[in-house]
Amino acid sequence: MAGTVVSVAAREGQTLNATYQTPNILRIADLSAMTVWTDVSEADVRRVRQGMPVYFTTLGSAGQSRPRRWSGTVRQVLPAPAATQAPAGGTAASPAPATKAVAYTVLFDVGNEDAELMPQMTAQVVFVTAGAPQALTVPLTAVQERGDGQGHAARVLDARGQPETRSVRLGVRSRHQAQVLEGLAEGERVIVGETPLERGLRWLQW
Predict the structure, then answer these.
(1) Which range marks the domain in which residue 82 is found?
(2) Quick check: 127 and 39 in contact, CB under 8 A?
(3) Domain for residue 48, yes or no?
């Protein structure tokens, strides 16, 4: 058996008695691959599927200019919430209080050959529900729903620096950006905010 000692339960000189129960002396773990356990709310867990791409960062890399990302795929979604799973003895657990948020545990594996990951680290996990490589994107603040309910519109600065309203068709969206399928071209200047002034408007560009 090869691995890394992650905890020692026995003390030097302690008497070990294996008559009734085998004592735990130490724990050895294979840290070359890690399993990430993450909680997903009941509102989102139906969108998580086995094999779905996922990536995460750790709190230790949050201050870096380019935080390192680890990637993997969903291995399993546990069928019962963490708070209501039955204990090892088999006794049924009590249901969670109605006022408590319910979360389900999702598991995925990631390689750790360089030993950058350690047990019990906190991971900030992102599940990739859709993707559009090499896509043209704009901030969500640059598009608004049209007043007639027919799609979206964006405010664009023309060659003279004057704003014009343009109809756009959007594709995949994240929390902050949206894919543009029609209506804008790469390099065009879009307006993400307008501030009224005494003699007109000032535009915040992106």
Answers:
(1) 28-127
(2) no
(3) yes
- CA dist 73 and 53 (Å) reads 5
CA-CA distance, 166 to 155, in Å (whole number)?
6
Specify the CATH number for the domain of residue 54.
2.40.30.170
Distances (CA, A) of 159 to 41, 73, 154, 188: 47, 46, 16, 9
| Cα–Cα nearest to 15, from 5, 25, 6 | 25
In a domain, 34, yes or no: yes
Q: Which among 12-21, 26-35, 88-97 has the top mean pLDDT?
A: 26-35
Q: How confident is the model at residue 20 (pLDDT cuts 50, 70, 90)?
A: low
Specify whether 164 is located in the same domain as 122: no
Strands (E), 50-188: 53-58, 70-77, 103-111, 123-127, 137-139, 143-145, 152-157, 163-173, 177-182
The whole-angstrom separation of Cα 56 and Cα 36 is 9
What CATH number corresponds to the domain at position 174? 2.40.420.20
Q: What is the pLDDT of residues 108-158, one digit of tens each?
A: 999 999 989 999 999 999 999 888 888 999 999 999 998 887 889 999 999
User: Which residue carries 């998580």 as its tokens?
Assistant: 48
